[in-house]
Amino acid sequence: MLSGSEEIYEMKKNHHVASEILKWLSKRISELEESKLHKCLAYDSMLHAAKYGLVEFIDSMRHANPDLLWAMDKNRRGIFLHAIAYRHDKVFRFIHEIEGRKEMIASREDVFDNNILHLAAELGPSSYLTRFPNSALQMQKELQWFKAVERIVPAKCKEAKNADGKKPRELFTKTHEELVKDGEKWARDIAGSFTLVGTLIITMMFAAAFTVPGGNDQNTGIPIFLNKRAFKVFIIADAVSLITSSSSVLSFIWILTSRYAEYDFLWRLPVKLLLGLITLFFSVLSMMIAFAAALFIMLNGNRGLVIATMSLAVVPVLVLIPTLLILFFEILVSTLRSPKLLTSKKKKKKKD
């Protein structure tokens, strides 16, 4: 097994070899006539490059022979349409910038009268969808991609019908029916599981608030350890845990009772999940702080026993918290990192 540095060296070495082969190939392509380009499948290679997101290959072949950019398959789908269908935003941006005919590209249709928004409305390939860990995030990414393409097409493309008589919006709804159902099931399962955890925390923290460590003074009813710093930590942590766990449960209940419309997966559902997860995280954390403070009060003077007990109590938290945090960051990154199909004007100026 290779070490990290050896693996990086091998990757750089392979990339260098691939670059040299590409240079040689570009030189050979530039010398070929049109008939030989078809014979050696140069046009098909451009379409495969668009399918797999190989921008370097497309760029190299473009410099060798600009006509290769106009490669088309039997369905009259060129590089640009392949970039849309296979969800390669880098290829999309590259072709969009170098061709410079926005209206013509955006209005282009295949043999089934599908424009680029129709292709964005089709269900993405499995190789793209499996990059995301669950059905809800897959649906979110499909919506983000569709909205990104929708922003750059002319208004007529949004209302155009394909050979089946469907507008892009209608096609999106039809092709994503199963994904919406799968996303709904995943969200309900997650919300149901975490609602149970939140409810248990609420029950424990509510009971702990009225059965304080050391009990109350029988004459005044005031907690005996009221003036101790550890007791104040206990009360504050208990209150924080109770409030955050209640907020978490309410967020997850909203998810359980949601109607699960398509556009809920874009922002509303992820935001509610993020809110529920982060509040549940703080409720678990503050619950453990309250538990530690209560142990410190009850076992005052026996720090060894407190440390030993806390070490064991941390085990279930170490199991739950990583799960919460991993899921939280997956949803956060997916929500914030939407596809960018056009570069900013500043970048374009630098490139020019």
UniProtKB/TrEMBL annotation:
UniProt cross-references to InterPro entries, sorted A to Z: PGG_dom
PGG domain location: 185-297
Ranges that cross the membrane: 190-213, 233-256, 277-299, 305-333
Keywords: Membrane, Transmembrane, Transmembrane helix
Tagged with keyword Transmembrane helix: yes
PANTHER family, sorted: ANKYRIN REPEAT PROTEIN, CASKIN
Record's protein name: PGG domain-containing protein
Organism the protein comes from: Stylosanthes scabra
